[in-house]
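Morning, I've got a small favour to ask if you have a moment. I'm working through a protein record and want to make sense of it properly. The fold is given in discrete form, as structure tokens running alongside the sequence. Can you walk me through what the tokens say about the fold? Thanks so much in advance, here it is:
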Amino acid sequence: MDQATTATRGRHANSLNLVRLVLATAVLVSHARITAGLEEPVIRGDSVGAWAVACFFVVSGYLIAESRYRLPLGTYLLHRFARIMPAYWVCLVVTGLLAITCFAGTLPLGELVSGALRYAGSNAFLVQQQGGIAGTPSGIAYPGEWNASLWTLAHEMACYLVLGAVAVLTPRHRARLVFLAVWLGSVLALVALPHVIAEPPLLLSQFARLAPYFFGGVVVQFVLPMERMTAALSAVAATGFVGLELLDPRWGSQLAAPLLAVALLGLSRVLPSPAVIRRHDISYGVYIYAFPFSQALAVAGLEEPWPVYLALVLLLTGAAATASWLLLERRVLRWARSRPARRARMPEPSV
């Protein structure tokens, strides 16, 4: 791969930072409504936050597929681990500290500390097994859950692992057809699941709903180079996506996942993105920290209008996300990328 191609791909990946930040902020706004005791905005039966998560998955599928075929399997897995896990673990600790701070005056400190330790330990491997800490948060509109955003991360990691495993047996020149089959298989699994299992487990239902978005993005990686995505193509793809979703709201959006990927990727090429956002990707931090800070403000019982509450959530979350990126995420990613066995010196998407 020549240096010009490397620079171009890295630039395109960084241009998606703004799109990801907007999506993370949409999740924040959607969740801030319910933590404030208001109705969550809904479009076609799904919350704005759920739609933003779907968009996250298609963009992630597109970018991570390129990363997998550029890197050996071990290096690929190290990069995926470095991107998700360290910041996630710190978020669990910060959430425990928030719970202790918010309820130290009403519950025994020892009970709160042991609850925070159990919270971090039980959720350490991404699958969310404990939502509350020593019975908190309580006395608010959305009790018993400190971070309702984290459940998607286990499914994203599962998609990374499936992609990594399939790529082991699939050379790049055959990847287009193989991952087209994987994506279609994931859509068929979603359609068939309720007919095969009367009451499927929650984790399986969630994965079946999200995987087609991810692998729809993977398909686009092997079909349409970023350089060929234009504003006009993005508009056509968006129209097609809406049309298929209107035809069947149960699984039409998953069937149209590649169109959603093209719409978002094309949009990223025409949106004016500030240089600071292209250099720094705080979207992951915004996503994982928004809910606990929303809950902490709700516990504080601020008698302020919702726009003021939202502004405070944005301020606190933005500060935490920026600190997470500058002090932890960026450093861990740099360390991971400095490890041997890399095939090319190319900026990796900060996904």
The chain is about 75% helix and 0% strand.
